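Most newcomers find our protein records easier to grasp once they have seen one. A record pairs a protein's sequence with a compact description of its fold. An example says more than a description, so a record of this kind follows:
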Amino acid sequence: MRLMSLREALAAHVADGDCVALEGFTHLIPFAAGHELIRQGRRNLHLVRMTPDLIYDQLIGMGCARRLTFSWGGNPGIGSLHRLRDAVEHGWPQPLELDEHSHAGMAAAYCAGASRLPFGVLRGYLDNDLDKANPRIGRIECPFTGERLAAVPAINPDVTILHAQCADREGNVAIRGIIGAQREAALAAGALVVTVEQIVERLEPAMNGIVLPHWTVDAVVHCPGGAYPSYAHGHYSRDNTFYQRWDAISRDRDGFKDWMREHVLETNDHAGFLASLRAEAA
C-alpha cells in the first residue's frame, strides 16, 4: 500500500477503457475521486455501481463513460439523472451502453467476483422475461435439486474506488455506518484505491465496522470531505440542498458544462472544489 495524492493514485491505477467501480451506499460516495477522473480526462470507462447517482451523472455528462453496469439510477428523492438520460436517449455527449440489474443481481455478481467465481446465482429474474432484454441474465438448473435459478456473470472491476472514514499508516481501512457493496467490490477488483477522512496511527475496534486489510489496498489517499455532497457517517451530513440544486444544474447541457468547468475542471483538487462552492454561496 502507498499513501498517495489523489492525482497520483488515479493516474497510476485508472486507464482509459478500464472497468471502474465507485461504490458507497447512501454515504461515503467517492465524489472527490470521480471529479479527479473528470479532471484527468478519462475516456471509454465501463462504470459499475449499485444506485449510480450524481457523481455518475457528472462522469457520463463529461464524456468519461461508454458503458454502465448498474441497479437503479437516479437523483435520490429528487428524480432523474438528466445527463444519464440524455446519453441513453440522445447519445450526448456519446452513446452509453447499459447493463441493468436488480440490487440482488448486482450483489450476486459482486459476491461472485470477490470469490473469483465465474458467475453468481440468485432466485430473481424468474417470473419475467428480463433475460430476453439483457443477455447477461442466464437461467441454470441446480445440479442437486433441479431448481430453476437465475445467473449473472461475475463483476471484477479493473479498479474499485471507495471512500472511508479512516486508514492507519499500514494501509488498513475502516468503514463504518451503512454499507452497501463496498467490501465485495473491493475484494473483486484488480486494484483498490481508497480515499479517507483521516489517517490514524491505529484503528480502534468498532462494532459492525468493516476493516479492509492493507494487503487488499493498493493506494490510500487522505482526502477530507471526499464524499461531499453525500455524507460520511461520524464526520459530516448529507447536503440535501445540493442534490435539489443538481436537478436544475443538470437539465440543460450548456448550464451543466458551465458548472462543471467552474467547479471541477478549473479547480486543482477537491479542496479547490469545496472552496469554489463556498465562494459561490458567499
